[in-house]
Write a structure and sequence with these properties.
Number of domains of chain A: 2
Shape of chain A: globular
Number of helices of chain A: 15
Largest interface: A-B, 106 and 106 residues
Number of strands of chain A: 19
Largest sheet of chain A: 7 strands, antiparallel
CATH architecture of the largest domain in chain A: Alpha-Beta Barrel
Distance between the termini of chain A: 46 Å
CATH topology of the largest domain in chain A: nicotinate phosphoribosyltransferase
Strand order of the largest sheet of chain A: 13-12-1-5-3-17-18
Strand content of chain A: 15-25%
Oligomer: homodimer
Structural class of chain A: alpha/beta
CATH class of the largest domain in chain A: Alpha Beta
Helix content of chain A: 25-40%
CATH superfamily of the largest domain in chain A: nicotinate phosphoribosyltransferase
């Protein structure tokens, strides 16, 4: 199954109509941006770029796709012929994956004919809206964890393929591992896991369950201690595994008090190096609330794979410039109430003072002269239909994760406040 | 690529450990349920069942999967051999797809050995949590629309594969169509579309754009009238397409006032049969607020594919019963604070009085005697590893949609209040 039909019907019927008016081949510039951050957030993190480049490279209509479109009379035979030959041959630039973004940051810029570019709208937005929503939420959790490792464990709380994307996006944003095996295989994200309550309940006693797990996985494993009674389970865990027990996991209860009590108990049993991992419906706020508690690591599920209240990044894909009948470039923009946007080709830079970001400066029209205080934000991602290799596969995921760390390090302190507020830096337009 | 690695790592390591203790073959009953509805909702709609049965039937580890697991030492060679031969051979019963559910309704019951059943946990929850979240939100929008058609247009606001599932789930819940072509192909959901602002902006004038669209798609098409100025666009639309224009779409602005003005203008131009469709960030509340406005149909995007604030249905997959060493069935349950659940095999029925549902009655232990006032809720979905055909493919999607209408019709009036409140009927346990 190709990804070509992961597309809104109107993309194809617009091509149909544009072929009729002879304008389908007009050179165009489309831009992906978010009009706003989720309410009160200070910054967003771009994610999904590497995944998207893969999908665009492979975006083809196979015989099955074409047959279905023909049978359902979605487009005319002329357009079907055009779709049969389709591959994207244009160029794409954009923010690096892992980059910080703000309202109106043009995170992806697609140069191509109207038809070859408009057809990518649905797919591009599906990938970037979901993945960036996850990465943006995940980055806040990473900040809240203040250096302690976080694992993504939310596969069961989002669509089965989105789960893989979420694991990848959380890793880009600084999570250390995922429970999702496919994310390990496809994107090189380290995988981890403990055990479920079902494993304890399968056995005739908790002790027997712990013994099975330690025999199979070694004493470095993590034992789940809240199936029945936490203090009893901790005692059993150390008795079975010894003081070399890797970790215990707590998945319920009043966490700060619980965690402190478990730490005291582990220490009193001599298991001073046994770590405590907590996994009970955490989000950036509950993680922050555990800063003073002796937690060694976090596992986060629902809140990270659903963007912690904001499961879509509200990015849009807009035509901002096109050739006119005389071959000249014309800036275009919708003028609707509350949704007006700025037309024209953009050249965004991050303005830096003393190593700290102070503005998202977007030059409209001509590019600015190079300036040591302005870090250019657009880089080539796809040239003549071929992705730039650095952004692909597990390698690209790692590159994105590294870039995220550098981009985050540039932000002013107020970016890391969890409370609602304005974007950490303003977006400023400059017309050249 | 198989779906076998869309699985949390711990499912496989638990099998590893259970093989070590010799308990992997213990017969078990796992149950999927939600401890609660999203805050203030009155009922939920089960969706994803047909998709899940497909995925379970095809759940196999191919050579690529096994090689990756071996190379990363995820499980022992013995477990790898077991995985190589894996297919689910147990039985699954559950609520019909499209059924209404309440807190603790056992919507899926999986009978099999520990190992063959636990391995399906992640996949089953990914599918049911996402799809049911979408269907549950969509059903409220359908009620709010009060008979006027709604189309799902949110593919761009959720992961690219989740978009297909969302289109399907919204259709099960009563939406009439989707913009997503793959959902049309794979699940038989009717597809539809209009045009984007980019199409208007591609042309040298709005009039030229409308003319292209009408020439290509006929005067029955829907013209987007809010790119520049709505009254001018409506005038142009009728001039270009004639009074037989199918519809106009409004995607921005203050909808109730805007819609009324457009209706008056269309009527004054003689386009009395031209319909008005609105698509501006709608959810169940804004749809309800448009009841008095002359809207003919709705297009809903972000809010439906993200579950209108609740993108995951909080369903869990729990071991509730298993054989003991003597071969007897033992009810089991976790006892943790705030997450305690009821062990044992359940026999849920919907208690009906005068045609109206009054309780979700869950018999625990033995099944109850048949009773005309109790509609049994569990039906066979998979027998000895083979799905019951009625739930599969486009046919199954249609069956689910029909069942949803019947199940909704049984609910008391308070189920359809949009305001926050208690579940429409109580969940009552009866121990037999």
């Amino acid at each position: 199954m190709t990804s070509a039909l992961l597309t809104d019907r109107y993309e194809l019927t617009m091509i149909d109509a544009a072929m009729r008016s002879g304008l389908h081949d007009r050179e165009c510039v489309f831009e992906v941006f978010a009009r706003r951050l989720p309410e009160g957030r200070r910054y967003g993190i771009v994610a999904g770029t590497g995944r998207l480049l893969d999908l665009i490279r492979d975006f083809r209509f196979d015989d099955g796709d074409l047959d279905w479109l023909r049978d359902h009379a979605v487009v005319t035979p002329t357009t079907l012929d055009w779709l049969a030959d389709y591959r994207f041959t244009g160029s794409i630039s954009g923010y690096r994956e892992g980059e910080v973004y703000f309202p109106n940051s043009p995170i992806l810029v697609v140069d191509g004919t109207f038809a070859e570019a408009v057809i990518l709208e649905t797919l591009a937005l599906s990938v970037l809206n979901y993945d960036s929503a996850i990465a943006s939420a995940a980055a806040r959790m990473v900040s809240a964890a203040d250096g302690r490792p976080i694992a993504e464990m939310g596969s069961r709380r989002t669509g089965e393929r989105s789960a893989v994307a979420a694991a990848r996006a959380a890793f880009v944003a600084g999570f250390g591992a995922t429970s999702n095996l496919e994310a390990g295989r496809q994107w090189g994200v380290p995988t981890m896991g403990t055990a479920a309550h079902a494993f304890t309940l399968l056995h005739d006693s908790e002790e027997e369950a712990f013994r099975s797990q330690v025999e199979a996985l070694g004493s470095g494993t993590t034992l789940l201690v809240d199936t029945f009674d936490v203090p009893k389970a901790v005692e059993t865990a150390v008795r079975v595994a010894g003081t070399g027990l890797g970790a215990v996991r707590i998945d319920s209860g009043d966490l700060p008090a619980q965690v402190a009590a478990v730490r005291r108990q582990l220490d009193s049993l001599g298991a001073v190096n046994t770590k405590i991992t907590v996994t009970n419906d955490l989000d950036e706020y509950t993680i922050a609330a555990l800063r003073a508690a002796p937690v060694d690591s976090y596992g986060v599920g629902t809140s990270v794979v659903t963007g912690s209240g904001h499961p879509a990044a509200s990015m849009v894909y807009k035509l901002v410039s096109r050739r006119d009948a005389a071959g000249e470039w014309v800036a275009v923009a919708k003028k609707s109430a509350a949704k007006a946007s700025v037309g024209g080709r953009k050249h965004p830079v991050r303005t830096i003072e003393d190593g700290v970001a102070v503005a998202e400066t977007i030059y409209v029209g001509e590019p600015p002269a190079p300036n040591a205080d302005e870090r250019p934000l657009l880089v080539p991602l796809m040239v003549d239909g071929e992705p730039v290799a650095d952004y692909l596969g597990a390698h690209g995921t790692g590159v994105a994760r590294t870039h995220r760390a550098a981009a985050i390090a540039e932000l002013p302190d107020q970016a890391f406040r969890l409370a609602r507020g304005e974007p950490a830096i303003p977006t400023v337009y400059v017309t050249n």
